[in-house]
Design a protein that fits this description.
This is D-aspartate oxidase isoform X1. It contains 10 helices and 19 strands. The protein has helices at residues 45-52, 68-80, 116-134, 139-142, 155-158, 207-210, 229-242, 273-276, 334-347, 396-419; strands at residues 2-5, 34-35, 59-64, 84-90, 144-147, 169-170, 178-184, 200-204, 218-227, 246-249, 264-267, 283-293, 301-303, 309-312, 317-320, 324-325, 355-366, 371-379, 382-390.
Length: 427
């Protein structure tokens, strides 16, 4: 759900009673998306014939979910697994996904129970993938670019075991690349994080730079990438369709609906996995942000908690945010919006003049750790291989390509198993 606040925001709603929202259009669905009735038990009709009219040795793969994780996984499978047909199935596509709300800056996020080196690999593979796009003619269409400045709370990545509350701040200097700078009120135990050699130009901030932040005594600066998520999702969709894959608009209530029309299912349904995978460990983490027009803002600032940040983009600046666990509400909260704007104006006073303010809400798929594994579903003598790739929380954009590559390796193993004849029994 999206709403708009007009005018000079701070003095327009001092008590939260003068919020006036104008509904924003969510856009129209791409004509190339197939429409199917909700809750249909099995694929049939034209869709079924399209899926059946494949070479006999083609393995049919369904990817459930069309956020950044689902689309990246579908693209990787179509590129790397031979003799497969890929169909992306989701009830929502861009601009209506949770990924569309994400600010899209590559900042590492810590996951429990996943080795640090694995997380670093996912981050590196994602960084390299987006870097290649940023250097190509596709950069504008894909919405991927470098930005310059100084970042914030990566303290969980400095080391997950470091439980001290460290106040940090990211500031991006005006330039063509995002230079993240992270500043601390106390010197962190680990001054150089494990991902320092993945980003560009990692260094400590100088004393002169830190003078701008008198409450902080230490800082780090580096360059990273920004992904305009709505543009990137549309770019991924177009690449997927160009490979011959399909996009189907449909709500899936049970993964068994996809059997026998598909041979392998890849579950990238995010929060939907609470039902589809029967996973009580996943729950919503509500995020509310503001998108404002403030073209003079060229730096990115993020405080130590990670809840207050200013991320400049091509068409708007994203101001955040919230991290409300267990909250399912998609309706913007006026009090929260006022608080976000107030906190961001404290960091960047020029935002008092921001206009065309839009509220956006997304429900992050929160989980103690990413679930990236194979599962064989068995029912009534029938089998359905499933690869799960969900639970990335607020870090999905930063590791989406790396986790998609790993999911693709698991899909390849499932395909190999399907193509390997079962050994004949010996009597």
């Amino acid at each position: 759900m999206e709403s708009k606040i007009r005018g000079n925001a701070l003095n327009k709603f001092p008590n939260g009673k003068q919020f006036c929202f104008a509904s924003e259009s969510q856009g129209t669905r791409l004509a190339s998306h197939w429409k199917t009735r909700v809750g249909a038990r099995a694929f049939s009709g034209d869709e079924g014939s399209l899926l059946r009219d494949r070479p006999m040795d083609t393995v049919r793969v369904a990817v459930v979910g069309a956020g950044v994780i689902g689309l990246a996984t579908a693209m990787c499978i179509s590129q790397q697994v031979p003799r497969c047909s890929v169909t992306v199935i989701s009830d929502k596509f861009t601009p209506d996904t949770t990924s569309d709300v994400a600010a899209g800056i590559l900042i590492p996020h810590a996951y429990q129970d996943i080795p640090v080196q694995t997380q670093k690999q996912w981050f590196r593979e994602t960084f390299d993938h987006l870097s290649a796009i940023a250097r190509s003619p596709e950069a504008v269409d894909a919405g991927v670019h470098l930005v310059s400045g100084l970042p914030t709370d990566l303290c969980c990545w400095l080391h997950t075991c470091n439980r001290r509350r460290i106040s940090t701040l990211f500031l991006i200097l005006p330039s063509l690349a995002i230079k993240n700078t992270k500043i601390f009120q106390s010197v962190p135990t680990r001054e150089v994080p494990v991902w320092a050699d993945v980003v560009l130009g990692f260094r400590k901030m100088t004393e002169a730079e830190l003078k701008r932040f008198p409450q902080h005594v230490f800082g780090q600066a580096f360059t990273t990438l920004k992904c305009e998520t709505s543009a990137y999702l549309s770019w991924l969709e177009n690449r997927i369709k160009a490979s011959g894959s399909l996009l189907l608009t449909r709500r899936i209530e049970d993964l068994w609906e996809l059997q026998p029309a598909f041979d392998v299912v890849v579950n990238c349904s995010g929060l939907g996995s609470r039902q589809l995978a029967g996973d009580p460990a996943i729950s919503p983490v509500r995020g509310q942000v503001l998108q404002v027009r403030a073209p003079w803002v060229k730096h990115f600032i993020r405080d130590g908690s990670g809840l207050t940040y200013i991320y400049p983009g091509v068409s708007h600046v994203t101001l955040g945010g919230t991290r409300q666990e267990g909250d399912w509400s998609l309706s913007p909260d006026a009090e929260i919006s006022r608080g976000i704007l107030s906190r961001c104006c404290a960091l960047e006073p020029s935002l008092h003049r921001a206009c065309d303010i839009k509220e956006k809400v997304g429900l992050r798929p929160g989980r103690p750790s990413v679930r990236l594994q194979k599962e064989l579903l068995v029912r009534g003598g029938q089998r359905l291989p499933v690869v799960h790739n969900y639970g990335h929380g607020s870090g999905g954009v930063s590791v989406h390509w790396g986790s998609a590559l790993e999911a693709t390796r698991l899909v390849s193993e499932c395909v190999q198993d399907l193509r390997t004849p079962a050994p004949a029994s010996k009597l």
